[in-house]
Amino acid sequence: MKYVFKALVPVLLALAVTPALAEFKLGFVNGQRVVNESPQAVRAKKKIEKEFEKRDQELQKLSKQLQTMQEALEKNAVTMAEGERRNKEREFNDLNRDFQRKQREFREDLNLRQNEEMAAIFERANKIIKQIAEAEKFDLIVQEVVYFSPRIDITEKVIKALGDGAAAK
Questions:
Q1: Which of 141, 154, 158, 139 is nearest to 25 (CA)?
Q2: Residue 14 and residue 7: Cα distance in Å, rounded?
Q3: Digits of tens for pLDDT over the chain (169 positions)?
Q4: What share of the chain is helix, strand, coil (3-state, %, to 5)?
């Protein structure tokens, strides 16, 4: 009897919840698409690229300089005097350390700026999602799922609303 009761409880709960789910309105938003396709995201990426363009060019120039120095060292190491070779190697190592430090700082600064811009976009997108949810009477809108039906996908509405909001500002 105890086993029959344990087996019936989930079935009875499912039957009790089914009528409530019939009126349940569910939506899905693909956050990655919002970040990749929204007008704000496109503008933010261009802004960041422009902001970091000069530093990126400097790093590329420094990288080429290091490569040239390394090739010259390898080519001329046999014919150089010991003291000259050590000086060139020390110069190369100092420049390489400087390059790696600048490259690390560049990546850190770039990641920080990207995170700042994406946080602002997510904040704006979340406000729009709440507005859509209230206007269209959604009970639940989810963003991270394994599977969703295209029928409940409201990502395009969110991207469009972000674009409309950008024009209004």
A1: 139
A2: 12
A3: 454 345 434 444 444 455 555 588 999 999 889 888 899 889 999 999 999 999 999 999 999 999 999 998 888 878 888 888 899 899 999 999 999 999 999 999 999 999 999 999 999 999 999 999 999 999 999 988 888 888 899 999 999 988 876 544 4
A4: 80, 5, 15
Distance CA 89, CA 91 (A): 5
Query: In 3D, which of 65, 42, 47, 12 has the Cα closest to residue 162?
Result: 42
Angle at 87 between CA 86 and CA 89, to 5 degrees: 65
The fold of 19-168 is Protein Binding, DinI Protein; Chain A (3.30.910)
- Indicate whether this model's pTM tops 0.70: no
d(CA 99, CA 56): 12
Enumerate the domain spans of the chain: 19-168
Q: Which structure tokens are listed for 82?
A: 């010991």
Closest of 62, 7, 25, 14 to residue 136, by C-alpha: 25
